[in-house]
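Async update (no meeting this week)

Hi team, since we skipped the sync, here's where things stand on the single-chain job. The sequence we agreed to prioritize is pasted below, unchanged from the tracker. I ran it this morning and attached the output directly underneath so nobody has to dig for it. Comments welcome in thread, and please keep replies under the output.
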Amino acid sequence: MLSRSRRDFLKSTIRSVTALGAAGALSKFGEINALAAGGANYQALVCINLAGGNNGHNTVIPITTAQQNYSLYQAGRQGLALPQNALLPISTGADTYGLHPNLPEIQALYNSGRAAILANVGMLVTPMNRSSYNQPNAVVPNSLFSHSDQTSQWQTIVPTGLGSNGWGGRVADQLASLNTGAQFPTITSISGCGLFCVGQSSLPANIPASGPVQINGALNNASRTQAMQTLLQFDNGLQLVQAANGILTRGNNYANQLAALIATAKINTTFPAGNPLADQLLMVAKLISLRGALGLSRQIFFCTLGGFDTHSDEMNTQVMLLTQFSQAVGAFYTATQELLVDQNVVTFTTSEFGRTLTPNSNAGTDHAWGNHHFIIGTAVKGGQMYGSFPSLALGSMNDTNSRGTLIPTTAVDQYAATLAQWFGVGSGAALSQIFPNLGNFGTSNLGFLG
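Output:
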């Protein structure tokens, strides 16, 4: 019998190379027209999932606005309030907000018009406030404060049931004709993508930040490699086994070829060392640089930065994580400029929910609902805040209880639909197929992309 470690390795390898194999039979990479997707028609979406539920209350803070000011925030946050003089100021019209002190790269992108904020977005079935939320027959997303359920709902845009595929995958399905002849899947997961990456017909490639999983390289021994090849080529007369052997063989060849291509990808931008998100985004930059060789005019990427489930020690944890986020995104935007695709690449954040305004007894916060998110890229109409920033008065019409558990004022459907339309999905029937509840909300395009 195989040892546990060997079984785990083979499972991981098969998942990786099978996804590559699903892209279709690759011709030799060197024979592909390098200009196939290198023109102005190229577009990419890069999703950064802040897993665990980032606390938006300490990410974007009102300082002086028409409705509220820093003192209201400070009263709600209590011992978790960030000092006003430490905040990184940004403005939206006459209103002044502050970013977390460890987001200087995001501040610079916002102030230069390359980043925008979407305020208080979350899963909704229909528009809602405190009054409608507290009605006995209120229709709200299932299991509102559950990590797994809310992660699934953000990825599938199915708030009251079980989705079998994700909106990223469905977008890829709709735009499959734009990648006709492509030698690689539209969607690439760099870290832990769930249903978001799976469409009805689209499947993702799984490429770790360290590069494709290669059986030959992992065996690290010529005799072992030869033995594996012999086993894969052996005809045992069982059609199912032979078919599986063929998939694994082709997938391994694809992985080896892709690894060789990635080795030629040169990114001069310096990415911060020891930063897991930066490692992922560097791989994204390399794959974008290979878009012509892969024959792709559309690409979707999924990256993850985890650790945001801050029930305790939230202040110190956010310092570390938001530093990693800001530095990684800053480097990635610079890399898109280096590659001359900053106008063609939009990076956006997701997180399963926000957190309570008021702290708990462990210097942390608990699961909540609405949250603030960033959209970054030259195509972004930046230096602005979109959506409606909620009142931070405890027990207000934006609060489900009296802890600052924000009821979203913008639906994830609207957020995702705006990104999808920029990416090339037409309005009307095509959009409603991807986002069936979109018609419940006032607008399908929030206007943050040109």
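Quick observations from my side:
The CA atoms of residues 357 and 404 lie 5 Å apart.
The chain has a mean pLDDT of 87.
Reply here if anything looks off.
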